[in-house]
Structures are given as C-alpha cells and as structure tokens.
C-alpha cells in the first residue's frame, strides 16, 4: 500500500545515490525514514541554525533554505503544520519568533516529528533557562551541541531529557577544566 | 598582535550593522584578520577564529578557507578545540571535498580516546557526514564500540552503524554479531537506537528480516512494559512513557509482520491494546495511534483489527486539530484501495473536509473523494464535488475537472445526467479544463445519440452567456456545426425547445470568429462549424461569403481552411454534402483514450481526398440491429465501409457495407462498376491492392478456405502490411462452380470489438460461373491486441433469378495471421 520510490528530482535522489549500489534484495526499500534537515529561522527570514543529515552541494543547500523560507513564512496563520514539498514532508512549528522546520521522508510519522521539534525546544529551554532567540543567536554553537546530543544521522539518539542534560553539563565541565589550565576564556 | 576579538563581541558588532553593505564590510574586515591569524599558525586563538568563521558562514558568507583549520582543531588535544573543530567539519566539509579524508585518522584516534565525550564527538561526526571511504576504514571501530557496556557510547555507535550501512550496504553483515543482546538493554537511548539499527538491517536484507523475526516476542514485551508501567519521569511526555521508542518499536513490528502470518498474529494483541488504551487528547498520543494504524494496515492483521484501525482514522477526521485531520486523510488515501468498504463508511466526513480552510487538507479530501466515487454514490458525490469545483482555488480546478470527467464517464447513471454534468463543469470551470478533455467530450457527446438536440441546445444557450472559456466554446462550436439542424428545428425532448433561426446561429458563430477572446484553435473550430452548417442550413450564400472572407486571413490555419472550403463550394460541390455529413459513432479501443481512428484533431472533419464515408446517422436503429445481427450478443463490431475511389465522374464510388440503406443527403451509391477482370481498377492513394503487397511478408501465412457452400467458394489469402505489423491484409477470392453466374454479389464482414475492419472495393459483383474467374476484395484488419481473429461474413447474391443470403462464421484463421 505504501509504495513508490522517491522520484529523482530532489535531495532524496542524491541521498539514494550516495547510499551506494542497491543490494538487490527485493525487499521494500520505500520504508526509509529519517530527517533530512533541520532549519531554524526567524520571522524575517534570518537563518539561525542549519543541520543537514544528507550530502548535498552548497548551492543546493541555499536553494532548499530559500524554498523553506518561502513556503513556511507564507503559510496562513491557522494552517496545518505539514507541507508536501518535492518528495519530502516538511514539518514546521513556530515558537515565539523562531520557526523550527524539519524535512522528513515521505514515510515518516509527521505527528512524531512535531514531538521531536518540541523536545528540542524543551532541551534548549532547560539548558539556557527560558530560551529566547537571542540565546540561540549568541550561543549558536551550543545549540548545535545540544542538537547533536539529541539527534544523530537524522534519527533520535536519546529519548530522556535528563540524560541529554547530564551529558551537556559534563561536556561543558570538561571544556572549562581544560581552559582553566590555559587561563584564558573559552572564546 | 592584539588578541582576535571574541565570538560574542563579533556577533554583537555585526548585529549593529544597519545595511547589508555595512554588514559585508565588517565581515570582510574580520575575515581578513582571521586569515592572517591562520597564516601565523596561532594555536591559542584558532578555536575562537573558527567559531567566528562558522557564524559568518551561517550568515551566508564563504568560509572554505577555514576547512583545514577545522582539521587542525580536531587534531588538538584540547576538548574545546575538538568540539569546535568537529562542528566546523560537519558544517564546512562533506565528502565532495577531498580534504575530508584527512579527518579519518583523527577520528580513528578519537574513537579510542580515553574520554567518552571525545569518543562521542568522533562517533557523531562520522555518523552525520562520514563518506563511504571513511565508513569502510572505520567500520571496525564502530563495531567494537557497539559491544561496549557504556550506554552513552553504545547508543551513538548504533546510529553510527546505521549511517555506515546506509553508505556501504555491504558492511551490514559485520554488525550482526553485535546486535545479539541489544534489546536486553535497560537504557532507553540504547534501546531506541538499537531498534533503529535493527529496522535498517531488516529493510535492506530479507535474510536479516527472517533472522530477526524471532525478536517479535521480545519487542512486544518491551512495548507492553512501556504502556503498562507507571509514571516514569525521565521518559514521560504528557502521560505517555517514551513515545519515541513506542513509535519505533511499532514501525519495526510493521516490517517484521508484513508478510508473515505468525508474526502478525503474535502482535495482534498488543496492537489492539495500544489502539484502545492510548490517550488521544494530546498530539503525542495521536502520534502513537497513527503509527499503530499504519502498522495494522500493513501486516496480516485480522479483520476486526483493521476495522478498528479505519475507525481510528475516522475519529481522527473529526478531530479539531488540523494536523490530525490531514494525517487521517493521507492514511485513508493509502488504504482506500485495499479496504474500500471500510473507508466508504466515513465518506460524509471526508466530503465535509472539502470545505476545510486548510489547503493541504482540501487537496487530500479531493483526492480521497474521487477515490470513493462509485456507482451507488455518484449522484450525491458529484453534487458535492461540483460545488467544490465552483468554490475552490484555481490551483485545484484543473485536477478537479479532470476527476469529475473521469468519474462521470465511469459511473454516469444516465446520459442526460452525464451531459448535464459536463455542461456544469464547462460553464463553471471552463477555462481550467485540460486541453485533451475537449476531444474526449466531443466523443462522448456523439455517442449519446438521443441527447444531441438537448446537448446542442444547452451548449448554444451557454455560448450566448459567455464566450470566454475556450474549452466550452470549442465543444459548443463543434456541436453546433454538427447538430445545427436539430437546433433550428425547434424540437427537443428533454427540455423546452428554444426558437432560434439560422441567422442567429450564424451570428453567434461569426461572433466567435471575430472576438478577441477566441484563441486561434477556437476560431478554427468555429469556421469549420460554419462550413458544416452549409449542408444543414439553407442560408448557404451567407456561409459562402464568410468562408471566402477568411480565405485571406492572416492566420495561416484559418486561411488554409477557408481556401479549402472555398474549393469545396466551387470545384467539389458535389462532394460537399458527403464530406460534411454527420459524424459516425466513434468507438474507443481502449477505455482511456480516443483511438487513432477517431482523431488526433479535435474536430474530426474528414480531409479531402481521403475520407471514410460514414453510414448516415439518420438510421441508427436499423444499423444497430444489423450490427448486432452479424455477430450477435455482446460483440458490437466496428464495421468500416469501403474507401471511396477517386473518379471524376460520380461523387465517390461508395459501396456501403450495409448495402441497401439509402444515404440521406448523399449521392445514390453506385456499386463499383462491373469490371469483369480480377484486377481492381480503382486504386486509392497510399492504399494499394494485392499486387503491390510484399510477398515476402506473406510467405509464412497459408491461405484458407473461409466458405464453401452451394457452389460458392471463398478463399482467404494473407499478407501483412509492412508498416504496421498489427494490420493483417486479407484478400478474398470468390469463385463459383455452378453453371450460372452469381450476380449482385456482395460480401460483408464483421469482427469482434477489439478489432477494426476495413473493406476495400471488390473487383466486381459478378462471380462468373464454372470458375471462369474470381471476384477479389481486400479486407484490412487492425488487431492491436493480437487477439484471435474471428469473423462473421454475410453473403448476398442473385443466382438463377432468386436472391440468396447466407451468414457464416469464420474461425479457422491460421495463427500467423493474428499473432
């Protein structure tokens, strides 16, 4: 019932090509699920974070970002959070002045993707304490570190908020210890 | 050398820029500073500089000169350096740059580092952007880490392995041993990533799939624990324990149960449990329900469970949350083929969604509605869909119109309803209708014989209202041209007939010709329609005038038509009535598209010089009887008459296959002149008779005797027309062994519906006695589906003063003639 390969017009085609030869196993390949990218941008269209889980050229990345900005920012206020774009599902949610946008495979569960985005926001909130856009602007590298403890390779890595929080704290401690030695501020 | 400014300082500065140009200037200045700092190989501030570079990269400025610096940071011993270095590698590098391979060694070292967070960084980078070469080199390390007892590393190694497998599928085997006790872990992170890894392996290899089927009980147990266990603060989301893990397990169960009865049975209970017990007030519960429904529909579940799943989707449709409604419609669209009846139950809710404000929901609802249309609900559904067509956004109109036509064609309860529906679409969404609909509609209209008067009347009235919608105008002009006589006759069975004069009709058509709204194609239609009316109306002079005016039109297409029609008035006036006669009923060989015979043009006007003369529409009832007589029952044959021959004398030598019927408005058919030779005298351009056939092609097909009775023997010989291997060319040879001639000999043939037949002129209609000569006639049969050839023949002749008639079936065609 769920069938169909992605048509070769988009990022997914590059993903498929980069996966190496299809081992001819005759099983259903169409069940691929993963997040292709995560973008954070402001209402004015300023990019605050971009995480790509597939290999695509810089030019293509810029195009995707432009398309996402156009699609998402143009949505009327009370629409659903899902958009069909090329052969991906786009899930987006607005938190205060920031849009969180994820590109999913067609077989992915978009309701769960909303939960994924929400969880990321919660992690940011826990880390920064009442996170706002400025936190993410001035500490963008931390936003990436947090994301990398939550997702990896387009999949959820850790489902416990406590565990993620703990790792980040530990790693930060590691950082300061080393730099205390150098007696210089981090950066 | 002053210390480079700090990252946050730079960010603050850049944000004060008021214009793009100002920002660019700041960035350029800082880039220059960073570049010189890199050149000095400054270890202390490299980290800070790269961080600033990454910020500028996010703003959209080039940062490739920092790629090597990222590698140096990765190689550093400081954790801070590594953290920024790996981040930089993930942002600035990918497998397209050769430089990335230099990372491999660093990553390898870091995978074996003493600090787990360093190992974690390496795993993360490899798992996000590792190329196939890197994956091949480092797979062993990842596999090692997959077996560690450190859950922080284990979960990262699992997802890294997923990435490796995606990049280099051949390496999948090496991870198999490590998966042995992955599911016995208590740590949710490890459990989750393990399920992802198992899913990836099962999707890629049927062997793995069968191997892992034995895990179903274990997965069911884990899922059960998640549902039944009490509140767990660490994993709780709105009262549900670890929804991410639940969904992943459900998906893996789906893959394992898909074509396997035993596995499907083993998971039946837990699926029912999840479906009934999950809290639906929040999005998270619905996410799990959604996944459950997808799993139920995909495995071999029992019917009760399937109905439960569809009902959940039905409930979703009533949910206030738009997202849930959207997801429900998408899922129902996927299941409508397999569980059609169950989905039908929710039809009214689905139709309500057509009125939703959200564009994505409307589109899904429209697609689903079309999928649900059937013979029973066609009237109600069409009402809703037409209402939707009226009010929807332009982006939907074309698809909706096509869908309406398709559905109407399949399930129309009556011809009148069908015509009315078409009219409704043309008048409300006429300009959005697809171009290929016009010929389809024309074909439909011609086939609804009894509705012609009604149709042309309605179309005429529509034209009076609005001539801007081109498809409507084109169909209307064609119909007026074809059935204009019915229009002015003032007779209409279905509704109140309108009174309109010939001049009024011509006014409308001429109006189309001059209007700015008409496209060139439309003008062509209306000119042809005017021309056709010359045989149906009496005001021929007016038509002649119009046609001659357009003989000097700037539009080449119009000019050509007008010139040809002019010629038709002058030199070929005797052919005019025949050429402009009513169109025959057009058959379709396939249900999807018009046949090649029907037309490639929209107006199906026969061109001069080569025309298939149609039997008059005035006697459809008789014809139908004859047709049915010949082949009986279901097979309505397509009977083609002979081609008219080009002679100067009479208006076309026409041998109507149905012989006796007189042609209204056409010249009296003269049978082909009796030429007592076996050679056909009239050759048509392009259609050659038997001497010209390629005998080499004929070599393989043996001749056969089709009929042999009362002294009349008919043999068939075969050739294949080379250009089209689907066409079989049969020549009949009729010989007479009795002592008296057989005169007025007429040979007719009919074939089943999937074939098409064309009968050329016979050589003579006298079969000389005592086998002194034969009458030959060529039959061409088109057999696109390569079905077995069958034929019914009807023979009439006069012998010794009495008329003979015989019907016979020919079934003994050699296989080569139709294969």
UniProtKB/TrEMBL annotation, chain A:
What InterPro entries has UniProt attached to this entry? AP1_sigma, AP_complex_ssu, AP_mu_sigma_su, Clathrin_sm-chain_CS, Longin-like_dom_sf
Extract one GO molecular function annotation from the record. clathrin adaptor activity
Gene3D superfamilies (UniProt xref): 3.30.450.60
| AP complex mu/sigma subunit domain span | 34-165
Membrane topology is: Peripheral membrane protein
Q: Name one GO biological process term.
A: intracellular protein transport
Its localization reads: Cytoplasmic vesicle membrane; Golgi apparatus; Membrane, Clathrin-coated pit
Under the heading PROSITE patterns, the entry gives: CLAT_ADAPTOR_S
SUPFAM superfamilies referenced in this protein's UniProt entry, alphabetically: SNARE-like
Which Gene Ontology terms of cellular component type are present?
A: AP-1 adaptor complex; clathrin-coated pit
| Pfam families documented for this protein | Clat_adaptor_s (PF01217)
What are the UniProt keywords, alphabetically?
Answer: Coated pit, Cytoplasmic vesicle, Golgi apparatus, Membrane, Protein transport, Transport
Q: CDD domains from the xrefs?
A: AP1_sigma
Quaternary structure and partners: Adaptor protein complex 1 (AP-1) is a heterotetramer composed of two large adaptins (gamma-type subunit AP1G1 and beta-type subunit AP1B1), a medium adaptin (mu-type subunit AP1M1 or AP1M2) and a small adaptin (sigma-type subunit AP1S1 or AP1S2 or AP1S3).
Q: Which PANTHER family match?
A: ADAPTOR COMPLEXES SMALL SUBUNIT FAMILY
* Similarity section: Belongs to the adaptor complexes small subunit family.
Q: This protein is called what?
A: AP complex mu/sigma subunit domain-containing protein
Read off the lineage from the record.
Answer: Eukaryota, Metazoa, Chordata, Craniata, Vertebrata
- Name of the gene encoding the protein in the UniProt record: wdfy1
TrEMBL record, chain B:
Q: Which GO terms describe its biological process?
A: intracellular protein transport; vesicle-mediated transport
In this protein, which residues make up the domain named GAE? 699-814
Q: What is its main location?
A: membrane
Sorted alphabetically, the Gene Ontology cellular component annotations on this record are: AP-1 adaptor complex
- Superkingdom as given in the UniProt entry: Eukaryota
- Alphabetized SMART domains for the sequence: Alpha_adaptinC2
Membrane-spanning residues? none
Start and end residues of each stretch annotated as Disordered: 594-616
Task: Name one matching Pfam family.
Answer: Alpha_adaptinC2
Q: Which UniProt keywords apply?
A: Cytoplasmic vesicle, Golgi apparatus, Membrane, Protein transport, Transport
Gene3D superfamilies per the record? 2.60.40.1230, Leucine-rich Repeat Variant (1.25.10.10)
Q: Biased-composition ranges for Polar residues?
A: 594-604
Q: Which SUPFAM superfamilies match?
A: ARM repeat (SSF48371), Clathrin adaptor appendage domain (SSF49348)
The molecule here is called AP-1 complex subunit gamma
What is the originating organism of this protein?
A: Gouania willdenowi (Blunt-snouted clingfish)
């Amino acid at each position: 019932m769920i069938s169909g390969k992605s048509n070769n017009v988009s990022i997914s085609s590059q993903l498929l090509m980069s996966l190496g030869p299809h081992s001819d196993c005759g099983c259903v390949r169409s069940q691929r699920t993963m997040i292709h990218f995560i973008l954070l941008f402001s209402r004015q269209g300023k990019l605050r974070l971009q995480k790509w889980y597939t290999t695509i050229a810089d030019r293509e990345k810029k195009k995707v970002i432009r398309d996402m900005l156009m699609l998402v920012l143009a949505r009327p206020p009370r629409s659903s959070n899902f958009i069909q774009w090329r052969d991906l599902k786009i899930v987006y949610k607005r938190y205060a002045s920031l849009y969180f946008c994820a590109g999913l495979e067609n077989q992915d569960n978009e309701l769960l993707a909303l939960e994924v985005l929400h969880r990321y926001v919660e992690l940011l909130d826990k880390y920064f304490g009442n996170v706002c856009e400025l936190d993410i602007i001035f500490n963008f590298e931390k936003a990436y570190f947090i994301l990398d403890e939550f997702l990896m390779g387009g999949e959820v890595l850790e489902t416990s908020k406590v565990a993620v929080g703990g790792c980040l704290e530990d790693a930060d401690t590691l950082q300061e210890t080393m730099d205390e030695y150098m007696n210089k501020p981090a950066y | 050398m002053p210390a480079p400014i700090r990252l946050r300082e730079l960010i603050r500065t850049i944000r004060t820029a008021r214009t793009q140009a100002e920002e660019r200037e700041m960035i350029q200045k800082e880039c220059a500073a960073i570049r010189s700092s890199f050149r000095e190989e400054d270890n202390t501030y490299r980290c800070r500089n790269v961080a600033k570079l990454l910020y500028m990269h996010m703003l959209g400025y080039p940062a490739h000169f920092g790629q090597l610096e990222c590698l140096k940071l990765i190689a550093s011993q400081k954790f801070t350096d590594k953290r920024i270095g790996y981040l930089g590698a993930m942002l600035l590098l990918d497998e397209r740059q050769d430089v990335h391979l230099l990372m491999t060694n660093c990553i390898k070292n870091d995978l074996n580092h003493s600090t787990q967070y360093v190992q974690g960084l390496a795993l993360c980078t490899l798992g996000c952007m590792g190329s196939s070469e890197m994956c091949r080199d480092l797979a062993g390390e990842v596999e090692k880490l997959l077996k560690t007892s450190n859950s922080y590393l284990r979960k990262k190694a699992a997802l890294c392995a997923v990435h490796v497998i995606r990049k280099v599928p051949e390496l999948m085997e090496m991870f198999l041993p490590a998966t042995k006790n992955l599911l016995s872990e208590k740590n949710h992170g490890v459990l989750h990533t393990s399920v992802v890894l198992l899913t990836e392996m099962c999707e890629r290899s049927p062997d793995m799939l069968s191997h892992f089927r034995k895990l179903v009980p274990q997965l069911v147990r884990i899922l059960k624990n998640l549902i039944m266990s009490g509140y767990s603060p660490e994993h709780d989301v709105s009262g549900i324990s670890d929804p991410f893990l639940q969904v992943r397990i459900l998906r893996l169960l789906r893959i394992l149960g898909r074509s396997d009865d035993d596995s499907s049975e083993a998971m039946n209970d837990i699926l029912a449990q999840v479906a009934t017990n999950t809290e639906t007030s929040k999005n998270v519960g619905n996410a799990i329900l959604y996944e459950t429904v997808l799993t139920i529909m995909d495995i071999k579940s029992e019917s009760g469970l399937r109905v439960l799943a569809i009902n959940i989707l039905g409930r979703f449709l009533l949910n206030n949350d738009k997202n849930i409604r959207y997801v429900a419609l998408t899922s129902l669209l996927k299941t409508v083929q397999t569980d059609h009846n169950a989905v039908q139950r929710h039809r009214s809710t689905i139709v309500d969604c057509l009125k939703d404000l959200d564009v994505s929901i409307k589109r899904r609802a429209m697609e689903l509605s079309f999928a649900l249309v059937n013979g029973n609900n066609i009237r109600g559904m069409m009402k809703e869909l037409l209402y939707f067509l009226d009010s929807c956004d332009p982006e939907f109109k074309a698809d909706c119109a096509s869908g309406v036509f398709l559905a109407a064609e399949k399930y129309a309860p009556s011809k009148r309803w069908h015509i009315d529906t078409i009219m409704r679409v043309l008048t409300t969404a006429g300009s959005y209708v697809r171009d290929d609909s016009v010929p389809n509609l024309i074909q439909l209209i011609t086939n609804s014989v009894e509705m012609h008067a009604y149709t042309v009347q309605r179309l005429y009235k529509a034209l009076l209202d609005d001539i801007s919608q081109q498809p409507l105008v084109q169909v209307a002009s064609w119909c007026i041209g074809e059935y204009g006589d019915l229009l002015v006759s003032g007779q209409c069975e279905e509704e109140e007939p309108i009174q309109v004069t010939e001049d009024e009709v011509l006014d409308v058509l001429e109006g189309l010709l001059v209007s700015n709204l008409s496209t060139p194609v439309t003008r062509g239609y209306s000119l042809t329609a005017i021309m056709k009316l010359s045989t149906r109306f009496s005001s021929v002079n007016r038509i002649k005038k119009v046609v001659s005016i357009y003989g000097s039109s700037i539009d080449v297409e119009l000019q050509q038509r007008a010139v040809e029609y002019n010629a038709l008035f002058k030199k070929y006036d005797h052919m005019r009535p025949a050429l402009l006669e009513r169109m025959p009923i057009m058959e379709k060989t396939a249900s999807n598209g018009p046949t090649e015979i029907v037309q490639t043009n929209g107006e199906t006007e026969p061109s001069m010089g080569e025309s298939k003369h149609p039997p008059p529409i005035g006697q459809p009832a008789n014809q139908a009887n004859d047709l049915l007589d010949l082949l009986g029952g279901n097979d309505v044959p397509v009977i083609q008459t002979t081609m008219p021959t080009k002679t100067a004398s009479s208006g076309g030598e026409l041998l109507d296959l149905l012989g006796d019927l007189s042609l209204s408005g056409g010249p009296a058919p003269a049978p082909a002149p009796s030429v007592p030779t076996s050679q056909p005298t009239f050759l048509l351009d392009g259609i050659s008779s038997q001497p010209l056939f390629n005998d080499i092609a004929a070599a393989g097909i043996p001749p056969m005797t089709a009929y042999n009775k009362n002294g009349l023997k008919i043999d068939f010989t075969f050739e294949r027309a080379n250009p089209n291997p689907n066409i079989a060319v049969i020549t009949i040879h009729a010989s007479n062994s009795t002592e008296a001639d057989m005169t007025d000999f007429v040979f007719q043939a009919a074939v089943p519906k999937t074939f098409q037949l064309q009968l050329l002129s016979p050589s003579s209609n006298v079969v000389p006695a005592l086998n002194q000569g034969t009458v030959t006639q060529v039959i061409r049969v088109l057999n696109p589906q390569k079905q077995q050839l069958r034929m019914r023949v009807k023979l009439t002749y006069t012998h010794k003063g009495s008329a003979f008639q015989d019907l016979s079936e020919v079934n003994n065609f050699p296989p080569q003639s139709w294969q």
